[in-house]
From TrEMBL:
It comes from Parablautia muri. InterPro entries: Corrinoid_activation_enz, Raco-like_middle, Raco-like_middle_sf, RACo_C. Pfam families: RACo_C_ter, Raco_middle. Transmembrane segments: none annotated. This is DUF4445 domain-containing protein.
Amino acid sequence: MEGLKNKCPGCKRISCNGCGIFQKLNTNKQAKIQFPESFQIEHGTGLGISFDVGTTTVAGMLWDLEQGSLLGVETGANPQAAFGADVISRIKAAVEQEDSLHRMQELLVKKLDEMALRMVRQLCTEDWPGAEDWFYKKNRSETVDGQEIRGEKGKACIRKVSVVGNTAMCEIFMGIKPVKLSGAPFTPDYRNRIFLEGKKLGFHFLQDAVFTVLPPIGGYVGADALAVYSYVNQAEQNRRILAVDIGTNGEIILEYDGEKYACSAAAGPALEGGAISCGMRAAKGAIDMVALNGSFPVQDIVCRVIGGGPAVGICGSGLIDGVALLCKVGVIDRTGYMRSRQEAKNAGVSEKICRRIDERNEKRRFLLTDERAPVYLEAEDVRQLQLSVSAIRSGMEILLGKVNRKASELDRLYLAGAFGCYIEIESGIAIGLFPDIPRELFFQAGNLAGTGAAMALLSEKTLERMEQESSKITHVELAEEDVFRELFLKHMSLRALP
């Protein structure tokens, strides 16, 4: 168990000085963003912000445009969740309900405005050298989380803001009714990059900034996927790459010997802790790793909790670990069925683990922690995970089929997104989320959409290149692929660990 305690929750390394992804999600600090070696910053003036607007989570980074240095990081939940946990629900609400589009846009703008103000305020309180040069005195106040904030160093000289997200999130952010996305053939309602003034979008703190919304690739494959591709395109000399940005709306991009394809997999919120009985984001109190302790017949389940202390819930990486482990020991079978105590005992599961199966109500569930701070994994949670896994894996297989290749023939498989950095590769392979290929082909790259958004902010040439590349990638609509249903049913089965 000592190894489990010492592993960084972000990058899974046993020795780590503080993984950037872990810091970003849990302490709002990120000391370093790794740009490709070939990337060149075009030095500007003032401050800038890059936003990655996800369906479940939004993330922002504050930049010194002159030095190209990162000054602050903020993350938070997308406030549009009240209109639906997934993209389809929000598109439907925006198109069919009279005031929903305006309300969703308003909520998101307010959230981003507050995140920007928090980053700037934190910069001031840290006595950052030169901070006085970035601010001027003001009389009016700003409000963050319901608290009025006054002060001499209030409004930042934020000149530029870049925004990426899936197509629906970008369109709702701009106040565009996503009519074309709501029905076949599911095309974007905008094509090229768009420049907008902050005040016209409804911003207060960022009212003087110019916003650049990056273009989509096609369908639901949006600017966030383009940002991921832009990073990979500059970072890699090899051209046999599959990049998977894992989230509520999972984007998959393949480049193989000059052929470029992209698709969007409706994974749902399960991988980010949504639609799960005890699910939550990767924050303090979340179970992020599940393991076995001891030897049969006295072995038992142990969980690691972000921040220590009692568990409050379980995040996506813990969910994948938990299901993979329960499949391995025999509590869950290959179909995803959670066995009863007697069935598990008959399957050779240890007595201690069998006692964790709760059959006292109609919903069968498994106790991951102890009854003093109970966190359960329900049978329905397993089904939700299976749907997410199958959607993403089927998308990967369909793109590889376009070039008639297998995953083992890739030079590298990028796992992007903050969640992609948390997943234990072996657990992902165990439940069928990833192909069983040599482990050295996997590269857990972190939030590449956010990094790509920063690259667009810091380099006009990169921004122009992104716009050009958006039209060179062939969009694949999974629902129109004949083999999709067959693959989806195939990958619903869990693949047990050897």
